[in-house]
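Lab intake sheet, docking and co-folding queue.

SAMPLE TYPE: protein with bound small molecule
LIGAND NAME: zinc ion
LIGAND FORMAT: SMILES
REQUESTED OUTPUT: full 3D complex as structure tokens
PRIORITY: normal
SUBMITTED BY: R.K., bench team

The fields below were copied directly from the construct record.
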Amino acid sequence: MAVPAHDQRDYEFAHKYSLPIKEVISGKDSNLSKEAFCEVGKLINSNEFDGIRSDKAKDKIISLFELENIGKKVINYKLRDWGISRQRYWGAPIPFVRCSSCGVVPEKIENLPVELPDDVEITGEGNPLEKHPTWKKCKCPKCGKDANRECDTMDTFVQSSWYFLRYCTANDKEKAFERRDIDYWMSVDQYIGGIEHAILHLLYARFFTKALRDLGYIGVDEPFANLLTQGMVLKDGSKMSKSKGNTVDPDAIIQKYGADTARLFILFAAPPVKELEWNDSAVDGSFKFIRRLYDRSSNIQAQDSIANIDHSSLSKEEKFARKKVYEALLKSKDVYEGSFTFNTLVASCMEALNALNAQLNRAVWSEGYFVLLNILEPIIPHVSWELSEKYFNLKNFEPIEVKEETLVEDTIILAVTINGKKREEIEVDKSLDKDAVLSIAKEKANKWISDKTIIKEIYVPNRLINIVVK
Ligand SMILES: [Zn+2]
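RESULT FIELD (auto-filled):
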């Protein structure tokens, strides 16, 4: 570190080779004639940094380096030494052989992979591979004499550090992976996992990736572009886990309601980063929404492209239904491309279905389903697929553009104030002129002005009307 006054190893090195020991941090417990001073203190012999506490001075010195363009702040990670072998049955075998003449010898390539036996007895005591009657007996790959297989297996971390590379070349029988495939598929765009894997596993996976990159097997630098740490599933307030015996079997839900309901419930119950409390009655609620979506589809007219609708000719309820449908579509782009708050998207679709249900225009119904089934397809694929096939020939699974005119509010709510005090609110068509708006306002506020004399009428467009009376 080259700070012999403040690092014990440097201090000892400097003493041994009679190098100068320059004090740059002073503290009342400092005794440089005996040892290095490694606590926080005040800087000395440091020009403009003199007098600053050493912990604060670090940031200031780094800033100066960055300003002068002679250095920059970096974060260094340290990977600890890591034992890869375990005395367990699970985990991949370590493909080495112990020979009394040759020592430890790697298994021949043509004999790979070394596979685990299917007939082990797991008693909870000792290493089941060691105890297996025949598995470990083999021939030495080098001299051909009787030898023993290595009975330790690799920690599962070894496999989880590179399994994503294998996914890119899943069918190759000869190689673990092919660089051409890795360079095409990697990095992983979105990684999803529990928080318990977020630190060590990611560090090991990055280490493997960088080592394989340096060895020329792959071209990517980083394995994962984005990480989402999902929340846990809770049941009656505690973590759902096999060891606690409080798991809910999804098969039972799928049996009773279908897979779409199970999916919808999970995505609707909570955003994925939050904990999810399992709730049987909410499962039923999700089923009812799907049921309703299915039943109301009788209002649709079959068509191969999205309906063309003259928005200006529609009633208030029809316009509102379209607005809700396109708001959901707008939201879906945000949710699927990064926010992953599927619960809010499902809520938007429910609102849109309610709004559709409050009007009778079949073109609006059809357009609404054209869009909603597109949005819901990743969430409830079976029902969405069935209805889309039946009514739209699946043409609604292409990207759909938001029709901006549906999102424009054509009415506005204005405050009506009398002598500066808010008395009423009116909702008026945006296209109305000043006189029309004032006349509606005066009618609505009649009881506040009928026995008074109007002195002044002020209309602030899009905001308020003020009537001054005496
Ligand atoms: Zn041998």
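REVIEWER NOTE: The longest strand covers residues 421-429.
SIGN-OFF: pending second check by T.M.
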